[in-house]
Amino acid sequence: MVREKTKKLRGGSYGRGHKAGRGKGKRGGKGMAGLGKHRWIWMQINMPDHYGGHGFVRHAQKTEVSAINVGDIDRTLDRLIEAGVAKVNEDKVTVDLGKMGYDVLLGGGQVGRPFIIKVGKATEKAVEKVKSAGGEVETDGGDKEE
C-alpha cells in the first residue's frame, strides 16, 4: 500500500528540485572541497589532524659519539685487564678503545702510569697527559680533535 506522502512525491522530483536529484546532485564539491566550510564537522571527526603543523624531520642528524676520559681508564684499569680489553706489555699498558666502543679520548682526570692507547680521535689535553706519564696515543686518522 502506498502512503499519502509518497503519492504526493510521485511525478515530481521528491523534494530536491528538478535537476538536483539527477546524477551527482548537490554533493558540495569534489574531493576535499568544503572541509573548512560545510564539511567542517565531518573533517573534525574523520580527519582531526588535517589542519596545522605536524612537526619536522631533521635530515642532518648528528651521530652520537662515545667518549671516555683518561682518568677513567687509569681508575678502572684492573677491571679492563680482567675483561681482556687491556694488556700489560713490560712496563706499558696497551688499551684499544675502539674495541671497547669508544670513539674519542678526553683529557679529564689524572694519569699515573704509562699507556699505549689506540683510539679514533683524542683531544690535545688527553694526548698531553698520556705523554707526560710516559705513554703514547695512537689515533686512526692521525688527527687530534680540537
Could you explain how this protein is built, in words?
This protein is α/β, with parallel strands linked by helices and 146 residues long. The chain has a domain at 67-145: Ribosomal Protein L15, Chain: K, domain 2. Helices cover 27% and strands 20% of the residues. It has six helices and eight strands, in the order ααβααββαβββαββ. The chain has helices at 4-9, 40-46, 70-75, 77-83, 97-100, 124-132, and strands spanning 67-69, 86-89, 92-96, 104-106, 115-119, 121-123, 136-139, 144-145. The longest helix has 9 residues, at 124-132.
Which helices and strands, and how do they pair?
Blueprint: H1 4-9, H2 40-46, E1 67-69, H3 70-75, H4 77-83, E2 86-89, E3 92-96, H5 97-100, E4 104-106, E5 115-119, E6 121-123, H6 124-132, E7 136-139, E8 144-145
Parallel strand pairs: 1-4, 3-5, 4-6, 5-7, 6-8
Antiparallel strand pairs: 2-3
Question: How many beta strands in the DSSP annotation?
Answer: 8
Biggest sheet character: 4 strands, parallel
Structural class: alpha/beta
End-to-end gap: 94 Å
Q: Which CATH first-tier class of the domain at 67-145 would you pick?
A: Alpha Beta
Helix content: 25-40%
What ranges have pLDDT less than 50 throughout 5 or more consecutive residues? none
Radius of gyration: 38 Å
Strand order of the largest sheet: 1-4-6-8
Shape call: rod-shaped
CATH architecture of the domain at 67-145: Ribosomal Protein L15, Chain: K, domain 2
Helix count, DSSP H or I runs of 4 or more residues: 6
H-E order: HHEHHEEHEEEHEE
Strand content: 15-25%
**What is the CATH fold-level name of the domain at 67-145?**
Ribosomal Protein L15, Chain: K, domain 2
- The average pLDDT score comes to 84
